[in-house]
Amino acid sequence: MIKPTPAIVSQNAVRRLPRLALLIFCLAYIVPGFVGRSPWKSADLTSFGIMSSLAKGHTSWLAPQMVGTTGDVDALLPHWIGAWSIQLFAGYVPIELAARLPFLLLLIVTLAATWYGTYHLARSDRAQPVAFAFGGEARPTDYARSIADGAVLALIASLGLAQLSHEVSPAQVQLACAALLFYAVAALPFKPGLPVFAAALGLAGLTLSGAPSLSLVFGAGACAVLLVDPQSRWSRQQALWRILFFALLTACMAALASQLHLWRWRIALPDGSLVKWASLGRLLLWFTWPAGALAVWTLWHWRRQWWSRTPSLHLAWPMMLVTAAIITTLSTAAGDRSLLLALPALAALAAFALPTLGRSIGALVDWFTLLFFSGSAIVVWVVWIAMQTGVPSQPAANVARLAPGFTPSFSTLGFLIALAATLAWAWLVSWRVGRHRAAIWKSLVLPAGGVALCWLLLMTLWLPLLDYARSNQSLVTQIVDQVGDAPCIEVSQLRPEQVAALQFHSTLPLRVANAQSVQCPWLLVNPNFSAAGVSVLASGHWSLRARVNHPMDRANALWLLKAVKP
After folding, report:
1. What is the 3-state secondary structure (H, E, C) of 295-317?
2. CB of 56 within 8 A of CB of 512?
3. What is the pLDDT of residues 41-93, one digit of tens each?
């Protein structure tokens, strides 16, 4: 027996979010972070370095590396697409922007797949709102469109999405592939063609992006969800064929991972301490906010649907993806990057909370968001003014203390963009608190707008400071000042992002250090690998010339050694 739905929505409440406004809003969130900044440590810079080496033909396409170092994730596809883009746009745009262009498109794919996946979930029979006795309930198409608009707003509002989704890293490709798979299963009951292609692309992308285990789990989960969910649009034979398709596709991905030797054991269970579990709890809370909280609200108010003998697809499928991502987060070292894959499904679950939110809860969300993001924007502006003028004196002194050697700069374009975004936020707040027609997505407008505003302000007003803190350019500059126009420089035990920074911010030819002979007049050693440094000094071939430190990260340091003449 199908339980009644908790969604009570009138046609007046499914007002359409203007497409042009949604498009501009998404672009204002997507473009900043891809344009104008230096590669940041560590995954962003490491991946960029490997892409650059591939594009220049310095490494194998099936085992990409740079000067003898590899990334933390055995990913192929992210480095391939970045290298292809560098080769395609060589000479037309800066190399770092060329590497980012396909990842910008992947973020667009993530948002689009989330919208269309949620739209099809909301079109399913058991996700529909209550039918009124005398008519006037929301029409299925309009209701699904409003729910999908809310899902995109919830995804943008998720705090954990901003930085990781703007990196050129395997995590960004995995996110897009997870969103494609989310869309594929959601849309499969309505049209088989495009969802089948999206499923194959999503599972293959996960496999080739360093997540073959998740590809296997997601594929098996899709089979399980399709098996237990009764679809009135399918005959029994159609349902069996779709389940068989996902089973065969998952088996093919497992075979592909085995053929390319992509399986790696990365399980790292928490140590059981209260501090560790508290840290994981904080990560789950802030990373998924507010989509995570709204998803919990959805599961409670729709509990009759997912506690029934045959759970509905619009709840079972997102729940499966979120559960798998959270388990991976708890059992791997890179918890935030694993949790990133849950955000599209979490956003869909959050959107289904919108028809059940009371007026008081909506007002609480609005006021909290208004105060938090308005306060954050004020802090960004005040610190920026202090960096430019020295007034107020305390923020200026804090910047000088935390970022020694940093010289502020003024960008007219960045200032105008930041000013326009702030004025747009003020208009959005006035629209939200003013009188307007009810729309079920209205409670997510301010959270999404606030995240977009703060991200854009950081990527304009604070971009020089963030580049100084998050890139390794200052570290490389100190090395170049020391070695001058050296013919080459040897490296030993350097972290991948340090090697990538040397390649990007300098023209120094790098060589892998050879313990048996001296190839270059200079050698760089990572002092954190003390055994390597001691053995190099004990060899008698090198003398310590300088210890080079990052001005804002003392752990990011290098020893610069000079060859001892015989």
Report:
1. HHHHHHHCHHHHCCCCCCHHHHH
2. no
3. 888 999 999 999 999 999 999 889 898 888 777 789 999 999 999 999 988 99
User: pTM above the 0.90 mark?
Assistant: yes
CA distance 131 to 534: 76
Count of Cβ atoms closer than 10 Å to residue 437 Cβ? 8
Instruction: Please check whether residue 46 is in contact with residue 497, taking contact to mean a CB–CB distance below 8 angstroms.
Output: yes
Q: How far is CA 498 from CA 39, 283, 473, in A?
A: 11, 27, 10
Contacts of 461 (CB under 8 A, 6+ apart): 380, 381, 384, 414, 415, 418
> ∠ CA 81-163-31 to the nearest 5 degrees?
65
Tokens representing 385 are 């003014």
| Residues 496, 268, 345: CA angle, nearest 5 degrees | 90
Tally helices (H) and strands (E) across the chain: 24, 5
Gap between the Cα atoms of 181 and 287, Å rounded: 22
Q: How far apart are CA 45 and CA 55, in angstroms?
A: 15
Question: What share of the chain in percent tops pLDDT 70?
Answer: 92
Residues 6+ apart with CB under 8 A from 310: 228, 229, 230
Taking alpha carbons only, the member of 199, 110, 118 closest to residue 156 is 110
CA nearest to 221, candidates 339, 83, 322, 343: 322
Listing DSSP states for 473-529 in one string gives HHHHHHHHHHH-S-S-EEEES--HHHHHHHHHH--PPEEE--TTS--SSEEEE-TTS
Asked, as a colleague might, if the bond just before 344 is cis with ω within 30 of 0, I would say no
Which token pair is 288? 């998924």
Sign of CA dihedral 284, 155, 26, 444: negative
Cβ atoms of residues 147 and 5 within 8 Å: no
**Considering just the CA atoms, what is the radius of gyration of the chain in Å?**
26
With contact defined as beta carbons under 8 Å apart, do 180 and 113 qualify? Answer: yes
The 10s digit of each residue's pLDDT in 359-388 is 788 888 888 999 999 999 999 999 999 999
Is beta strand 510-512 parallel, antiparallel or unpaired with respect to 542-550? unpaired
**Residue corresponding to tokens 């200032």:** 415
**Cα–Cα distance between 406 and 332 in angstroms, integer?**
36
Omega prior to 392 cis, within 30 of 0: yes
Domain ranges of the chain: 116-356, 359-470, 473-563
Tell me 550's DSSP state.
Answer: E
